[in-house]
Amino acid sequence: MRVLVAGNGGLLADALVASLSTAHDVRVIAASDALDRDPAAQASAGREVVVHFPLAAESAASPLDALDVAGRATYNLITTATEAKRFVLISTLRHFERYPAEWHVTERWAPRPTTDVSDLASYLAEIVVREAARVLPLKGIALRLGEVVTDEMFRSNPADSRWVHLDDALHAVERALAFGSGTSASSSGWSVFHIPGGGSHTRFPLGQAGEPAFGYAPRHEVGAPAAPAPPPQTPPDAPATVSSSRTPITAPGSPRRRVVVFGAGGPIGAVFAASAAADHVLRLADIRPLAEIVAENRPQNPGAPVPRLFDPPHEARVVDITDPDQVLAAAEGMDAIVNVTAMRNHPIEAFRVNMLGSYNVMRAAVAHGIRRVVQTGPSQISLAGPAGYTYDDDVVSSDLPARPGTELYFVSKLLGQQICCAFAYEHHIEVPCLLIGPLLNPAGTPSRPHGAYPFSVSWADAGEAVHWALHAPPLPRPFEPLFVVADLPHGRFSNEKTKRLLGWVPRDRLDRH
Q1: What percent of the chain has a predicted confidence (pLDDT) above 70?
Q2: Is 423 helix (H, G, I), strand (E, B) or coil?
Q3: Alpha helices in 340-488, H assignment, sequence order
Q4: Average pLDDT, the chain
Q5: Shared-domain flag, residues 197 and 330
Q6: Does any domain span residue 260?
Q7: Do 148 and 166 contact (CB within 8 A), yes or no?
Q8: CA max distance for the chain
Q9: pLDDT in tens, 49-78
Q10: Most CB atoms closer than 10 Å: which of 167, 352, 469, 489?
């Protein structure tokens, strides 16, 4: 078997290369080298299997580097491995530590990662592989392992129920390489297996991995359970524990709130600023000087809004959202953050802006005690083919799981949204996430042969939705996805939840389209 092992060394990665090399053709690439698509494609060429270790925290120069490897390098590896039949991702059982120790947590439970960078990194890598496996002709397999230890560590340290012996971890990878071969199992799709140590004292029980189809059978028993896990926090699909005594972001009679807007030079930022300048003090941030963007007067699309400058107390700043220090400084003294930045098609900057930029924004919110962050992104439901919802007529809920497939913009934006979600729940920050589809000029000439896409909305209504998201009362959940779509007659998508929670009502019906 021709195998590519992608990783930055470490106990399990080094042992796996040595073990596989005795019987297989093994090629190795550093996970950080896969940040560029060409090296990733060269390394994966002709490989039947990719085993990927996305955790680069030990060798990374910063948390951003670790997240970049987890998101961008994983994306590059799985989308360039055109001959691979399976993609094995090495992940972690730490995603489930928040559940009480007495609960029987198996593969059927939802991950609840912390905002620790190593937890976020492995979780983001899982998302990339899971979504790619919906559309690519390969099987994506995630192995969530306990803490891997050697025989010496096993003997010479106090027992820990979170351990898994190195030999058992290697056995799990071997089972993943053989999983589904020669059976009627699907040759594509997503599978996930929990890989604990052996015995009855493991922190997490042996579940689906122990069934005959996978056949993981650990031989090394771990000791008695460690200290109880911390109390559970609200999972992403449960009601929020936001205090009902909290006031809306712009309660009647309150002073004008100070809001920093990242991506203020774009059309949605332009509409929002014009709408919000009367009742907020705005710090308009963009990677280019706002005065320069205004002077160009170059609409992003025909009829798209362009920004304008505002007199004090409003201000404009040059801020690169991928620079954590600049983002932190721009958020100082602010009451809320609006993130309308976006990068669509650049294979590097899409991850840096859409994913790492979101991380920088949420870190700044935590540092400055900011309790509302408005995040924006694409609707994530328009993908054609078996993974998306194009074949469905009743796609009405904004709570539907995203389906980005391997679309660069969608994937990188989804990773940013998941970062926001993790921070929202862990740090009690309200994040209305506005999901926006095609943006149209109501007076423009229809350009599509079939008329407006059913998720369309005008530039003006999208920008004003951001304003309403700042005014809205406390949300039901810390992270709340919301459809921003016009009142279109197609009957496929609904803006009812957005109207109900934000008070926003679109004014442009887009009749000409």
Answers
A1: 91
A2: helix
A3: 349-351, 357-368, 408-427, 459-471
A4: 90
A5: no
A6: no
A7: yes
A8: 75
A9: 999 999 854 555 689 999 999 999 999 999
A10: 469
User: Is there a single domain that holds both residue 179 and residue 59?
Assistant: yes
**Same domain assignment for residues 349 and 469:** yes
Whether residue 202 sits in one domain with residue 347: no
CA 415 to chain centre: 2
3-state secondary structure of 12: helix
Digit-coded pLDDT (tens) for 245-297:
333 444 434 568 999 999 999 999 999 999 999 999 999 999 999 999 999 99
Tens-digit pLDDT profile for residues 94-153:
999 999 999 999 999 999 999 999 999 999 999 999 999 999 999 999 999 999 999 888
The pair of structure tokens assigned to 346 is 């650049």
Please tell me the total count of domains within the chain: 2
Whole-angstrom CA distances from 102 to 97, 202, 205, 207, 238 are 11, 11, 11, 15, 20
Asked if the bond preceding 378 is cis, omega within 30° of 0, the reply is no
Q: Is residue 252 part of a domain?
A: no
For residues 382 and 508, what is the distance between their CA atoms, to the nearest angstrom?
22
Under a CB-based contact definition with an 8 Å cutoff, are residues 370 and 428 in contact?
no
| Nearest alpha carbon to residue 356 among 158, 70, 99, 152 | 70
Answer yes or no: is 269 within a domain: no
Burial of 110 (0-12, 13-18, 19+ CB in 10 A): exposed
Query: In terms of domains, do 61 and 186 share one?
Result: yes
Domain-embedded: residue 261: no
126: domain range? 2-210
pTM (two decimals): 0.92
pLDDT for 233:
53
Among candidate residues 153, 185, 210, the one where a domain is terminated = 210
Q: Which of 170, 187, 210 is the last residue of a domain?
A: 210
The residues of the chain scoring below 50 in pLDDT are 57, 184, 225-226, 234-253
Same domain, 204 and 326: no
